[in-house]
């Protein structure tokens, strides 16, 4: 998000010259880099127009001069100067330290733009996270912030006992991370097999009504859980899975949601507790069920990405049913049901162990890809093992692309 100085400088440039304001974008950018900002921000709020919010959605006092021109300036600038930092959030409790660190490692290996990790964890895990992350050899590319697990004080007990102790923390991220415009939330059991940049780019594909992106819970209705067992509304044919959730948080905070509790539309912070009170006896998967209910009533607000962006055991344990993964490989692996830590799905466990044991800086082909392929070939007695090549197809491409970028950078 640009500072208020951009707004002020752009308006000043346009007022002093004739012709199209676009012609002066480069000049304005140069001035932004060379002029101090602290004494020039009085005319525009620092909560200004973001790339994701059109000028007509703004309060009248956001920009003190002309929000239309500021919006135009920002839009053009952001198209040519993409965000320099991606924000990724995870919630870790109990025995999830190692799993979370492995997920973070997978995010770092291939990503291009800098990452900022927002780690919500129980207090006793903070020192361990700090000790491990401070040793990561990517200073400048990776930053992190540790947060305690927090819920609204008047209802903390109810939220803590919903599904798993920390799971519903994700529902409150738009309210806690007030200065974060967009965020990728992932469960601890996620592994990135291609750059985070690629799923982050879906933000640019949102239309004017979409505020979040998730993948379907199932591809095959015959084995779907929601369409067979749910006792509450859910999105689409088979529901959505919240293990990988891309959010335009600015839009989420501003939206008024349709609901089945009142004819009045409610904002994010107003709707969560009433939803829990109404459906708490009918929901099995906790916060994911609440998100399904919310997007059932507001389907225009969800962008749905394909199954290879959230590939789970259900996509192969009964036979392969994620066609896009068969064609392009798995982009993001989601090892739910604890499959990274038992012998029920050795294909998933092999990928997890390979990334966990990889040492930063080692050759990715010889230290990661080749040992992993050998392990995957041992799993062909399982349904997932029979399609083991989808587990390395995209990983192979990601490694090749990474080495190509490094060669160009020399």
Automatic annotation (TrEMBL):
It comes from Corvus moneduloides (New Caledonian crow). It is a single-pass type II membrane protein. The keyword Transmembrane helix applies. One of its GO terms (cellular component) is membrane. It catalyses: 3-O-(beta-D-glucosyl)-L-seryl-[EGF-like domain protein] + UDP-alpha-D-xylose = 3-O-[alpha-D-xylosyl-(1->3)-beta-D-glucosyl]-L-seryl-[EGF-like domain protein] + UDP + H(+). It comes from the Eukaryota. It is found in: Membrane. GO terms for biological process: protein O-linked glycosylation via N-acetyl-galactosamine. Keywords: Glycoprotein, Glycosyltransferase, Membrane, Signal-anchor, Transferase, Transmembrane, Transmembrane helix. This is Glucoside xylosyltransferase 1. Glycosyltransferase which elongates the O-linked glucose attached to EGF-like repeats in the extracellular domain of Notch proteins by catalyzing the addition of xylose. Its EC number is 2.4.2.42. One of its GO terms (molecular function) is UDP-D-xylose:beta-D-glucoside alpha-1,3-D-xylosyltransferase activity.
